[in-house]
């Protein structure tokens, strides 16, 4: 048995998204059928990003397991002969059987394109949203700056999401106008359901003058989907790439109005230890932050996580369960708390 990774590009116009469903043809379904026919065995792919109906991709990632002896780098060529012309596998390679596209640290990049002119161009109608009214791209850019960083993006998530935690990190969010085309390009650690399209819809409201740029911060703070703009139509959105982080970041740091912390991972790989320093955190967010960041450290390989709460001594309760984790005062480091068996999360074998 071996596991093969695919880089998949597709025009999403004629498909009901990535994930198999009852109401129409999907990318996942087509890939499964083509792979099953190619290898003469039942194959089911696992995709990294479940793009919506009508959304395009230049580089989604998927894996599948097979008993086939075909060289992994040749799979893309054989598979493309069986795929429709609006789906192509750009590359294929063997990865460890433990590698999972949804459980590795990566940077996801999306682009939302807006054709902003008086008359639509027919050849672009399937790949960009057409807006007749003039948009102020500079104000959209100013508004986008409020969303960069780690925040609770509840206001920018569709209500029927399955996510338990609405905190996500946006590394960059740019708005660029080239001729009549405005491109919103966003990169982050991950995105909530419809998050990029809601961001696009909200920024267009700013561009139209409905909201001032600074109102986007108020929308973010509201944590209410009704506060944000509409969900922009799917055809303007393209998943550009998913870039796996092959090495751990030495330090993960985040700062906003509600919290400021840093996670030192310099000893995570060799010594299985990580160090979380919480400089400040509003009381109502403390337990959620503690669990979320410690869980990330454990996913990254830490078996012991030391925590230093610099703002309020005694805020961590010894013996209390914070999600999967229990903390005790450290015998080695004054002011620090240490997880008790941080590997407890692995008992179920699943990520929340």
UniProtKB/TrEMBL annotation:
Active-site residues, record numbering mapped to chain: 52 (nucleophile)
Reaction catalyzed: uridine(38/39/40) in tRNA = pseudouridine(38/39/40) in tRNA
EC number annotated for this UniProt entry: 5.4.99.12
Pfam families named among the record's database cross-references: PseudoU_synth_1
UniProt keywords, alphabetically: Isomerase, tRNA processing
Coiled-coil segments: none
Keyword RNA-binding: no
Quaternary organization: Homodimer.
UniProt name for this protein: tRNA pseudouridine synthase A
């Amino acid at each position: 048995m071996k596991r093969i990774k695919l880089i998949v590009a597709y025009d999403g116009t004629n498909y009901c998204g990535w994930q198999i469903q009852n109401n129409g043809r999907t990318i996942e379904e087509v890939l499964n059928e083509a792979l099953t026919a190619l290898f003469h065995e039942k194959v089911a792919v696992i995709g990294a990003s479940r793009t919506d109906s009508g959304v395009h991709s230049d580089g989604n990632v998927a894996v599948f397991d097979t008993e086939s002896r075909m060289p992994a780098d040749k799979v893309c060529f054989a598979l493309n002969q069986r795929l429709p012309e609006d789906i192509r596998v750009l590359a294929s390679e063997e990865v460890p059987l433990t590698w999972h596209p949804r459980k590795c640290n990566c940077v996801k990049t999306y682009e939302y394109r807006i054709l902003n002119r008086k008359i639509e161009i027919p050849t672009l109608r399937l790949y960009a949203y057409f807006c007749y009214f003039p948009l102020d791209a500079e104000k959209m850019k100013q508004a986008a700056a409020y969303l960069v960083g780690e925040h609770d993006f509840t206001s920018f998530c569709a209500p029927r999401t399955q996510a338990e935690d609405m905190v996500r990190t946006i590394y960059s969010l740019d708005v660029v106008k080239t001729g009549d085309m405005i491109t919103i390009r966003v990169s982050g650690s991950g995105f909530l359901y419809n998050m990029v399209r809601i961001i696009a819809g909200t920024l267009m409201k700013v561009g139209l003058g409905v909201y001032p740029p600074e109102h986007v911060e108020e929308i973010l703070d509201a944590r209410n989907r009704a506060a944000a703009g509409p969900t922009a139509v799917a055809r303007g959105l393209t998943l550009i790439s998913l870039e796996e982080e092959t090495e751990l970041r030495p330090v993960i740091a985040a700062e906003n109005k509600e919290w400021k912390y840093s996670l030192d991972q310099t000893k995570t790989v060799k010594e299985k230890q990580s160090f979380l320093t919480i400089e400040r955190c509003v009381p109502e967010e403390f337990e959620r932050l503690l669990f979320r960041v410690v869980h990330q450290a454990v996913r990254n390989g830490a078996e012991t996580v030391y925590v230093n709460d610099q703002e309020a001594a005694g805020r961590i309760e010894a013996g209390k369960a914070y999600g999967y984790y229990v903390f005790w005062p450290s015998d080695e480091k004054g002011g620090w708390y240490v997880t008790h068996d941080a590997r407890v999360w692995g008992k179920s074998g699943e990520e929340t």
